[in-house]
Amino acid sequence: MTKSSAPQRAGDPSSQGSRPAVGVNKGLLIGLAVFIAAVVAVFVFRAYHMNTYVIPSASMEPGLQVGDRIEIDPTAYEQAPPQRGDVVVFDGAGSFYPYESETPTKRFFDAALQLLGMAPQHNAVVKRIIGVPGDTVECCDDNGRLMVNDGSLDEPYLAEPDLSASSTPFLVEVPDNRVFLLGDNRYDSIDSRALLGAPGGGMIQKNKIYGPVISTR
Question: Signal peptide location in the record (predicted)?
């Protein structure tokens, strides 16, 4: 009769496969944590970078002063269209802002930032919407106020409330998908009035609006 082999205990090396060293996965966990932190940082920076702007000129005084930092809501117009009176930031490239020549290096870095959703918005402009599609905007009534659809417009935000709402007369009809914009500081603002003879008549396509200003600091 053959002797049966002794039972193996759970702790015996011969009863288990070789265990992976505890430190083997530690490096992977650290790397994963660093990656997640970097992704979160990119999205936080992206949200801040894309939605905040610094006022560079006096065209929106007195409400917005030079150096003010403003924040927009980029999703505000997903459900509702822009409204008269909204102060908005928009892409002025080709209209309010001249075209800029770009070097290959600049295009490369801008393309890289675009992949991260952080492409710089060099042509951002801030103005107030005065006319929306279908509106007729005219300067001015007998009291120097703008007229929208034959009604006089009350503008308590103007920098020069005792002067005419515009130094130059005009009459425009706002076409579909565009808005007519003016600065609050009418005597120190390049806006839709200055581009009435240009393609588009100085009116901005609605899809060029980044969003309305929601806070100032």
Answer: none
